Amino acid sequence: MADEENQRRLVDKTEENHHEYGEGDEDSLLDRLRHARLDTSLYYIICGSAVPTCTVGCLVFTGVSLLLPTAMIVIGSIYMNSCTAEPYVPLYLVVEGAFLMVLFILLVCLVKKCGRPATDGSNTGATFWIKSLTGMNCVFLLAWFIAGNYWIYHIYQPDYYDTGSQYCHYTLYMFSFWLTNVVYILLGLRLAWVYFDYLIKFIQ
How many whole angstroms separate alpha carbon 83 and alpha carbon 86? Predict the structure, then answer.
C-alpha cells in the first residue's frame, strides 16, 4: 500500500510539472534544472552560509580571499609616504586591496542571487546590476594591475636605506614585488594546466 501511494504521488507531481511547463517545454525545463544545479554548486563553493556548518575548504577560501586584500591595504597605508622612488606603489596596494574586497563581496552577492532565484523573477534586475558592477570592477582591477606592474618593476631595485630620491621601504617594495610575481606564477601554472589537459584529451 505504501508503494502504491508513493507511485500515485509521483505520478501526480509529474502531471503538475507537465501542466506547468507545457508539452513543448521539456528542453526548457531541463535547461532550468541544469542552470539551477550549476548556480547552486557555485553558491556552495563560494558562500559557506549555504550550509549549516561551513567546510574547512570554504573557511580557507574565504580567509585567503579577505586576508590578502587586508594585508595590501594595511601595508600600503603604513608605508604610504615611504617610497620616494615611486610614490604610486603604496597607493597601488591600497586601491588594489580595496577593489579586491569589493569584488569578493560582489561575487558572494551574485552567487546568492543566482543560487536562490525568486520564482517570479523579481531578482533579475538586481542580478543584472551586480553582474555589471562585477564586470566594471574586474576591468578596473586589470587596468590598475597593469599600471602597478610599471610602478613596481621600473624602479627595481630601489635603495632600501638611503632616504633619497631612489628610496623605497624594504617591506613595502618586497611585498609589492613578490605579490606581482606570484600572480604571474599562478597564471603560468593555470595556462600549463589548461594546455596539458587539452593535450591529454586530444591524445585520447
Answer: 6
CA–centroid distance for 94 within its chain: 19
Neighbours of 202 (CB within 10 A): 7
What does the alpha-carbon distance between residue 186 and residue 196 come to, in Å, rounded to a whole number? 15
The pLDDT tens digits for 148-180 are 999 999 999 899 988 788 999 999 999 999 999
Q: Helix, strand, or coil here: 45?
A: helix
Alpha-carbon gap, residue 105 to 169, rounded angstroms: 31
Query: Peptide bond before 157: cis, by omega within 30 degrees of 0?
Result: yes
171 touches 90 (CB < 8 A):
no
Helix (H) or strand (E) holding 111: helix 88-115
